[in-house]
Amino acid sequence: MSTEEIRAIELLGRAPYGRIATSMRAMPFVAPARHIVSDGSVVIRMHEGLGYHQACSGSVVAYGADDLDPESGTLRSVQFTGTAEIAEPTEAELAAFGPEPQTVDGEPFAPVYLRLEPQFVTVHTLDYGPAAASAPRHLHHAA
Known about the structure:
Elements: H1 3-14, E1 17-24, E2 27-38, E3 41-47, H2 52-56, E4 60-69, E5 74-86, H3 91-97, E6 103-104, E7 107-108, E8 111-116, E9 120-127, H4 130-133
Antiparallel strand pairs: 1-2, 1-4, 2-3, 3-8, 4-5, 5-8, 5-9, 6-7
C-alpha cells in the first residue's frame, strides 16, 4: 500500500460514517453507510431494504468520509474507488460496527454488508482554523 492509501485507511478509521456512490438503473446515487476498516479493506453496512447493495455488488463504487477535528478546524476528506462485493463479516467485524439503527426511512433496519478493496485513493485537507470549527452552522433555504 502507498503512503496515501495508508493515510486514507487511517482517516477512515476515525470517521465511522460515510457515503457510497454508484449508479442504479443508469442513474447516479449516493447513500449514507456505516463502515469499519478491517485488514486493509473497508467493510460497509447498509440497509438491505433500499436495494442499493444490489447495484453496488460487483460494481466499481466510490466511497467517501469526512473527519473534522474541532480543535484545529481541519477537515480531512477521504475518497476512494474500488469494487464492492457482498460479504459476510466476521464476529469481530460485527462487534466493531456497534449498534444498528432501529429503522431506515421508517422501515425496520435489515443489515447487508459490502467489502471494498480501495484501488484509487484521494485525501484532501481543508484548514478552517480553530475559530471556524466552533462557528454555528446554518441551513439556508431558497425562497
